[in-house]
Amino acid sequence: MNQSEIIEYVTARGANVVLRKFGASQDSETICVLVGSIPVESSTDIQGWEHSIYLDELVGGWSIGFSQFGTTRSLDDVELKKLLDLWIKKPDYKAFRAYEPS
């Protein structure tokens, strides 16, 4: 999957997406997938999210960075879709642990 396909995939499932570059040395953008919006009280408030994961493109797939818990190994399209579906429905970072590099 390429970046635009991932964005389309997760937004179709109700997640929000932000693209970010974390530093000048980063070659490509990180896809930030956000769920569980926190209601804002006024138009000047900044939108917040309860849960987020970060997708980075690697050789042979994508890795998922999840909070302070870690990062997955490179995932193929089938694994990536499976994990995104699980996490968007019920954000549980434990689901990623089986995919951490050994």
Describe it.
This protein is an alpha+beta fold. It has one domain (3-97). Helices cover 23% and strands 32% of the residues. It has two helices and five strands, in the order αβββββα. The chain has helices at residues 3-12, 77-89, and strands at 16-20, 30-38, 48-58, 61-66, 70-71. It has a five-stranded antiparallel β-sheet with strand order 1-2-3-4-5, covered by helices on one side.
Write the layout of secondary structure elements.
Elements: H1 3-12, E1 16-20, E2 30-38, E3 48-58, E4 61-66, E5 70-71, H2 77-89
Antiparallel strand pairs: 1-2, 2-3, 3-4, 4-5
Supply the key terms.
five-stranded antiparallel β-sheet, alpha+beta, 102 residues
| Beta-strand segment tally | 5
End-to-end C-alpha gap: 24 Å
Count of discrete structural domains? 1
Percent strand equals 25-35%
What's the shape? globular
Give the count of helical stretches: 2
Largest sheet: 5 strands, antiparallel
Please give the share of residues in helix: 10-25%
